[in-house]
Amino acid sequence: MSTAIMMVREEWRPMLRLALPLVAAELGWMTMGVVDTIMAGHAGRELLGAVALGHGLYYTFAVFGIALMFGLDPLVAQAFGRRDLSDCKRSLAAGLVMAVLLSPPLTALAWMMGPVMDWFRIDPSLREETQGYLRAVSLGTFPLMLYGSFRRFLQAQDIVRPVMITLISANIVNIFGNYCLIYGHFGFPKLGAAGAGHATTLARIYMVAVLCAVTVARDGWGGWTDWPGWRRVGEVWRMGLPAAVQISFEVAIFALTTAMLGALGPVAIGGHQIALNLASITYMIPLGISSAAAVRVGQAVGRKDGGGARRAGWVGIGMGAVFMLAASLAFWIMPELLARIYTTDGEVIAMAVSLLAIAAWFQFFDGVQAVATGALRGLGDTRTAMVTHIVCYWLIGLPLGWWLTYSRGWGARGLWTGLSVALILIGIVLLAAWRKEAHGELVFGRGRD
After folding, report:
1. For residue 121, is it left (φ>0), alpha (ψ between -120 and 50) or beta?
2. 13: in domain
3. Within this chain, do residues 220 and 244 fall inside the same structural domain, yes or no?
């Protein structure tokens, strides 16, 4: 027990110091999409629907490119742990090359969403506004990918405050852009949903400009502007691809769940959206801790400090679990109060309350799996989380939820129960995987010579 207490005392301060700005950054990232939806909603129901639909469609595939940059976490953190700063810069250069290669196909996908909306029989007027949003927001794909590279490079070296400040201030840029371009204020054209997309693109340009300036001020132009070689680009791809597949499948499962619940009527979909939004907000905290754990574990591996890697991972997992226990209690104690923030409709509130009761069961495990995924990424293992998420969500959780919803008549609660079982299993499996890898010999040999 005394050893565990000493471990926590030694690690929790540096972990918290790194995690808090990253948590704020994740919340700032989420806020940007929420603000777009709210400001579009004040311009009319049609614009609200167009921005909400466009945002969901765009991030269904854009998240793949964003998550590919997660491959920089172990490469840069381990090199920083070895005090090999030139190798850190070479990984950043490889990330920038990846951004150049990924942006054109991801942008093209946004321009090709018309047939997808036709297949779902989207209302023609909503389709036009949504397409305008998609085309505008897709212009920010390249700066978004660049931002991802600079962010991962900086935070892997414990430089997190600029990341936090950039995302918080980017929300101000986005709000002002929305005000000007959605409504047509200050002499700007009134662009509706497309205006929200252009405002988001401007915010992304601002974000990458700030982080690029921080990098130049700190490191100059040397190293990261040189050609990194295809081998290093391939390393970033191989390390990031499993994380990208994992997150893409996770986004897809929730998008599919939302579409399935849409057939059950407005009460089911309304309660689902409220519960999902609240669960997404709580998830941002362990997600920020997960990034901090990936950095702390990766740096320890680079130093050949197996004990430090284990300590960082366990403390990070503990922090995520404790917070999510508190979130679980909130979902149990005051679900109706939380649901009333979103609506006054009694039936929708009752549905949300029933779903939050289910969410309370998986909060702890969601916190564990989120941080364990980051800790494993710090070791250089991105495949275990990918396989676990695909198997548990798609082969266990979704079939179970489908059966409970449509064969047993559980309605929305059936799908949420299925996903809850999946998350509980994911948490258990990834915790076991972390314990096995962190306490094995592999932790000492992850870094490259």
Report:
1. left
2. no
3. no
Q: In sequence order, what are the residues at sequence separation of 6 or more whose Cβ sits closer than 8 angstroms to the Cβ of residue 53?
A: 117, 122, 126, 130
Separation in Å, CA 351 to CA 230, 335, 340, 415: 52, 10, 12, 13
Contact yes or no for 293/371 (Cβ under 8 A): yes
Same domain, 291 and 151: no
- The reply to whether 141 and 245 lie within a common domain is no
Residue 13 · residue 274 · CB < 8 Å: no
From 204, 228, 252, give the residue that closes a domain.
Answer: 228
- The reply to whether 5 falls in a domain is no
The CB-side HSE value for 422 (13 A sphere, CA atoms) comes to 26
Note whether 387 and 281 are same-domain residues.
yes
Tell whether 305 and 162 lie within a shared domain. Answer: no
Domain range enclosing 316 = 240-449
Final residue of a structural domain among 166, 198, 228: 228
Q: Are 358 and 335 contacting, i.e. CB atoms less than 8 angstroms apart?
A: no
Task: Assess whether 434 and 340 both reside in one domain.
Answer: yes
- What's the domain count of the chain? 2
CA distances from 107 to 29, 65, 102, 104, 145 (A): 20, 11, 9, 5, 11
Nearest to 431 by CA among 378, 361, 380, 366: 366
Q: What's 187's DSSP letter?
A: T
Q: How far is CA 292 from CA 26, 248, 299, in A?
A: 12, 21, 11
Write down the residue that tokens 């754990």 correspond to: 293
In a domain, 234, yes or no: no
Helix/strand/coil percent split, the chain, to 5: 85, 0, 15
pTM of the model: 0.86
Return d(Cα 301, Cα 387) in angstroms, integer: 23
Per-residue pLDDT of the chain (449 residues; tens, 9 = 90+): 456 666 677 778 888 888 899 988 888 888 887 788 778 777 776 777 777 778 778 888 888 999 999 999 999 999 999 999 999 999 999 999 999 999 999 999 888 877 777 666 666 767 778 888 899 999 999 999 999 999 999 999 989 999 999 999 999 999 999 999 999 998 899 988 899 999 999 999 999 999 999 999 988 887 888 888 999 999 999 999 999 999 988 888 887 887 777 667 777 877 887 888 889 889 999 999 999 999 999 999 999 888 889 999 999 999 999 999 999 999 999 999 988 887 777 888 898 899 999 999 999 999 999 999 999 999 999 999 999 999 999 999 999 999 998 888 888 899 999 999 999 999 999 999 999 988 775 554 444 43
Rounded distance, CA 261 to CA 272, Å? 8
